[in-house]
Specification:
Nucleotidyltransferase, domain 5, Rossmann fold, six-stranded mixed sheet, 22 strands, TPR-like_helical_dom_sf, CHAT_dom
Amino acid sequence: MRASPSLTGDPLAEWERVQRVLPNLPVIFWFLLIWGTEISPLTPAQQIQLLKVCYDIAFLLRDSELMVAVYWAAGEVYREMRLFDQALACCSKALEIAKAIGSILLQATCYNHMGHTYNKLHNYNKALDYFKQSLNAFMKTGEERKKAGVYKNIGAVYSSLGDDGQAMVNYKHALCIHEKFGEEREQADVYNNIGIAYKSLGDNGQAMVNYKNALCIHEKFGEEREQADVYNNIGIAYKSLGDNGQAMVNYKNALCIHEKFGEERKKAGVYNKIGVVYYSLGDYGQAMLNYKNALCIYEKFGEERKKAGVYNNIGVVFMSLGDNSQAMVNYKHALCIHEKFGEERGQADVYSNIGNTYYSLGDNGQAMVNFKHALCIYEKFGEERKQASVYNNIGAVLNSLGDNGQAMVNYKNALCIYRKFGEEHGQATAYCNIAIIANIYNSVEAMELYRSALALFQKHGDVIRQAETWHNIGTLYLNMSEHPEAEKSLKESLRLYELVFMNLGSLEKLKITVIETYIKTYRCLFYVSIILDKPEQALRASEQGRSRALKDSLQKKYGLESNAPSEDTRYTSSLFSEDNTSFVVICLTPQWLHLFTLASGKPLVTESVPKEIFSSVESEIDGKELESLRDYIVRMVNEANAHVRLNRDESFEDRSLRLSCDDDGDESRQPSVLARGVRTATEIERGRKSTEVRAEPSKNSEDGNFPETSSTDSKATGGTQNQPQLPTQAPMSQGTGIPQESDATPSAKVPQEHEEDTCTPHPPTCPETPIHHDPLEVLYRLLISPIEDHLTEPEVVFIPEDFTFMIPFGAMKDPDGRFLAERKRIRTGPSLSTLKLLRECPEHKHSKQSVLVVANPRSNVNVEWPDEFGQLKVKPFSDTFAGLPKASEEAKMIRDLLPDVTCLMEERATKNAILAKLKEGVGIVHIASHGNARTGKILVAPGPRPHDEIAPSKDFLLTMEEVYSCQINARLVVLCCCHSGTGEIRAEGVMGFTRAFLAAGARSVLATLWQISDEATLYFMKRFYGHLVSGLTASASLQQTIRDTIADKDKYSHPYYWGAFILVGDDVTLT
């Protein structure tokens, strides 16, 4: 075998080879250094390994300058890796060598590197100190070109410190040097920085001139990556000028370039700003999507500081949609990050937004504390522009406290600042706020202010604020008794709100929330239509505001056309075509109850329940008709729960699920199962003392959602005594929220004060005189007697609103003692349009095959659950939750009656098994378990696990979100759980399990309004399924079961047992 060349031969020959290579080592060194750090695709870790080789070469050559170059390069790599301690160590070592060899030029460069590292650490004072040392050293060496780079760095630090004047001085020094030496490429960066400084000083015109100078140079030299940064800044300038269209064009140009070059971090910043533009245009869905894109990237790269701005923006979206709890969660995330890094300016923006949230929750004290925190910080740093937004917010709080004088002072302070800086959007906000106070004494002046504001909102393309201002104008016309003008204005407001709603696409939760913000306008239009004697239009306005998100979801699910609400005069008649059915639509205005009766082939009947009927059951109404009605409903529900518990026997087990020590499942001992969603007479009175506001974002963001408020001028109703005081819009207040560096960050607004925490039931108001009437008789007299002659069909379908969802319509009792369910088949529906969709849904969309029964979940797995004292205890599941033996009997009974039944009983009733079967598709779903009134959660069995492992609650609580995600196709769902027909009451309707199953694809749902006993439910279900199997529809089966139960004349004949069962949705049969 031929031997290969070896380095182990003649030592002299080897030394000669080394001597030949030695002169080339500097070339090899610089090739490796430049290739490894600037050209190659090496990872940072690989670059460090290569730099160690470069250091060995420098050491071999005993070349101190090469060693310094290695330390510089390593420092930059460590800085990119965010390993700042190692970066500073490398810079210090380089500086030590430079001082040792007496090179001032190398020392100057080392100081510059140290400055860059401290700048990355946001230690701006140290960074400035090192940059100045670098500048002094370069001055000693006469290196004028190098001075330009340091001037730029010093300018950037001054910009970070908020001293834009000094930043501009240093940038211009740099620009002069580059111009002197004809360094055109370098001029582009300085022009860009000067543009940023002008932007910070409020001179968008000069900012744009400098940005365009920079862009021209980058285009000339084909520097595409650099163009992206300038496009980004031009977008910010256009956004400040109110040109959302051009802002979006430039942001998308920047995004395309970043995508082309894989610059993911930079994409995050642009996503954030695109989100701001979409937000300003009222497209909250796209805004949220872009914010979440930005957040994902920042999380991926550990950019914690930048996450703060995105959390703030996400909070603003939730705030605008009325979700105060989620807004607060995101604001507090942002605040924690700013506090962690000592970013006081950022804290001020978030304090202002948190103040807005507290204000919307009615906590004026905490609101004022946070606003004053923000104001102090802005004053400390001379942030005059941002002070304007806080003055607006403070004015709003003072206004709500009735101090109109001080409120006006603050609003005018804000207006002066906005005018000083030419911020038209802020001026519009201030005009609206001042108009609220002006309306107290001069409605003409208030109208002029609203019109001025509207023109500016239109100029800036702010759809949501235009909608709110039109609402304000409409309610002002209403209070002036100019009803036709009010009608036009409210319709324009709704047209714009509908654009916002349609832009949310498939974001179901956001749609549900945004409805809360514009339901007030539908209700105002309803009231105006009643005044103008336009019952068809009134019903259309009421109908279009009901279950909008559910209707939209069903249209998409069933492949039906989805359109914005129609103005067609045939709209109402197109919503129902069922023979043998009368529809009763219940509508509420602040002090009145309106009933609409519809039937196929018959004219629309409208009845406004007269005050005399209320007075006949309650002697001292005093303008609180709806409050009285609410009291009767609350009392009836509480009495039903108490009756069931008081008449229990030894085998009694109720199907309530206690989720905390404060919720023991006994609703008779709870304040109320109702959450208030519509303002009633007492709320209007409260509104007269406290005017709600909404805040407006500052600077580069716009926002706006107005609440309902009550006019403080009792003469504004035009002197009509029976005319209720219609809400007018509240003052808008300016939130804060600023761009971080070049990020445009919006801020939140203060929504309506009476937008209460509907997750928690509120105690019923107690009338001053005790109620001595049977609630079921009272409900009949109020809701049925006025329209009884028109209910000629055998079936009645009720479309409730707000708290009337809790009425057991079938249990209402006529003067002869007969229940309505004995004479009529009864159903309810979320809205006429959702019933129409369910009825017209193609047959193949719902299964007729197989049955799923879930009953009496049991398990020996350990769970952690609060005891009666609120202490968490670990016990076996079956010891923690009472068994429901009759529920198991229900399951066996259904299995014997129906074919193809899957029974998931006791240990088999696990969440995974249930969800898997629902996704497969079944025709009937029957769930017999414990349910919770407040959350709508249903108890299921935890899956098997090791003996000592504790099952988390998510494993044994079935939620509405999980049901909705299944996209089921059941014809009938029977929920034999306590309170399965209840939930949080919002503008969208009752947000509980019934709605969740309808939205998921069920055609009809049988649910319960209050707690039910285990034995009574079995008693009822045997009869119901017997009639269903005989061929009757679900509605007819329910009616016949009620008749049978009443005829039995035993304890279950009482309506507080059978009255809990309600049928929601379409009427179906088994075949």
